[in-house]
User: What shape does this take?
Amino acid sequence: MKVSLFITCLCDVMASDVGKDTVEILERFGCVVDFPETQTCCGQPAYNSGYVTKAKESMKQMMKAFKHSEYVVSPSGSCVAMLHEYAHLFKDDPEWKEVAQELANKSYELTQFLVDVLGVEDVGATFSGKITYHRSCHMTRLLGVTEAPYKLLKNVKGLEIVDLPLCEDCCGFGGTFAVKQPSISEQMVKEKTEHIAETGADYVVGGDMGCLMNIGGRLSRDDRQVTALHITKILNSH
Amino acid sequence: MGIKIGNAPFRDRVQEGIENDFMRGAVSSAQGRFRSGRLKAAEELGDWEDWRTLGEEIRSHTLQNLDYYLEQLSEQVSKRGGKVFFAQTAEEANEYIRNVVQKKEAKKIVKSKSMVTEEIGLNETLEKAGAEVVETDLGEWILQMDEDPPSHIVTPALHKNKEQIRETFASKKGYKNSDLPEELATFAREQLRKEFLSADVGITGCNFAVAESGAVTFVTNEGNARLVTALPETQISVMGMERLVPTWEELDVMVSLLTRAAVGQKLTSYVTSITGTKQEDEVDGPEDYHLVIVDNGRSKILGTEFQSALHCIRCAACINVCPVYRHVGGHSYGSVYPGPIGAVLTPLLDGYDDHKDLPYASTLCAACTEACPVKIPLHEHLVRHREIIVEKEKKAPRSERMMMDGFAKWGSHPAAYKLSTKMARKALKPWTKEEVIQSGPGPLKGWTDVRDFPAPSEQTFRSWFKTRQKGGRS
Assistant: This one.
């Protein structure tokens, strides 16, 4: 199966290991992974800030980059939810309407792709440690991926998973919100990291780098003994 | 007071909210109760998603045929002896009500809880005209004594605790007992009973008006709306022009959704309807009944992409799940309508000038949209507001606009994108210590003020992928 990786700007620059792990996981299940070099950012930072016209310039670039892909897979629920939104945003644009819909149809978040498309629930990983899982808002509420990450994590050998209190609450990232409203964002991430610490977990695991940078950044600021990890790290550990 | 409460800048209001530890404790525990109550009530009902769809369909149908149903409602109320007044603005509504009150030479007015009368600032108008206005919802009564605006649309005094309430009762009403809720409530009942019995006019809001019969319906737990409507001979109901349902059948659905979504109850203790004046064959009912239907900016929303904001049934489910509201509290929004629905509705009713910050008081986590019993896409409306503020109203800061110009170029030019990603690590090096940035430059400052920022990876993913040996890690 041919899969094009959409790395996301955050993973490309800030967490290239997430991309490396994603490639290796996909290859382990027989995917031939390519990386369309002209991909940039999904446009979400501009779109969510109200700069829809400017966001569309980036979006068009993305549609061009993945035009010939069979599947587009990405280690981010939020960025994939954005790709899905293209279909709606370009529905009145005759030039882009169809390609936007096609991109929406063929784009998957990684755990969603593994479980729903490849039918894999056990990736054969081993990881010893106690984790709690941060279900990111866009992955669950906008993309509708709620079960796939848990299914995959449950089958990882050596892993102990503990529930996160108030797991449904946003961590306070919100893209540009984190820098535009730092005082509100601070309260949100403070509460989130307090709940994470309460669980006694060694790691907080998630599927969106934005949330993880926010949570991880606060954990590090407060010198907490919990590490934020992208789910790909666990799924690619042996 | 009107829809806008307070003149302090948004940032200051938020800071004040964040520093109010007591309020935050009260809000988070109330959110906890409301959230679990709503989920439990939804589960008990079963098929919650089907109910939401039905709720959305009813609201959408009613709004699409609003002129028809408003006319029908008006006809029915008139037929039953009531007078109907369509107020285009808050001023028109206030003036009409003031005239009724003055004609009756009313000295005392009892009111049941009504957000639309908060929105139009009715109490102030009536007080200026020399009438005594008494709020009879317990929360509203407490706030009225303290001259404090509501911080929540269902439980307006959510931000106060029993000790504070005891103090208010003691200083304003000579209360001498403890802060036990039972004792406080008994005192309130005694005090309010006197007010009910001596009032000349009763004013209510309206949860839903039933167009086919002209019945105006109130949903309460305290029964105060029943007393307000049962005792004074002159009755005035004030409703937002969208708050109606076609028939009793739809009322059943909407009340079922409202009480569950709001407080997790199958039904509130009281659901009261008032249909015009006392008829010849009836033993009781008001001698004089007025229904004031308030537009105040609502008709401007009809037919726009924001129309579904008018579906709102004021249950506050969105407020109860909102993690931003949780930390900043209701007064931070600077509007009688706080939380996600407030952030959507307030700029629509009162313009962007005073409320342009509200659409940004959200991480777009969509918890509100998920909780809404009538499926208002609240987080999408917030994005639309931002789009209007940026692209139409041109109210975005210059520095942000320049940054977004840069973003558009970056995102649409792969070569520039590639180069900048490659440079990121080096560019941030002066601020990086041991792979962490604790005090970042420019736009990063907001981030690093409250949390660390990691150093960019040593090698971007794309350069790794390009030079990677097939199947290898390096």
User: Anything to note?
Assistant: The first helix of chain B runs from residue 10 to 19.
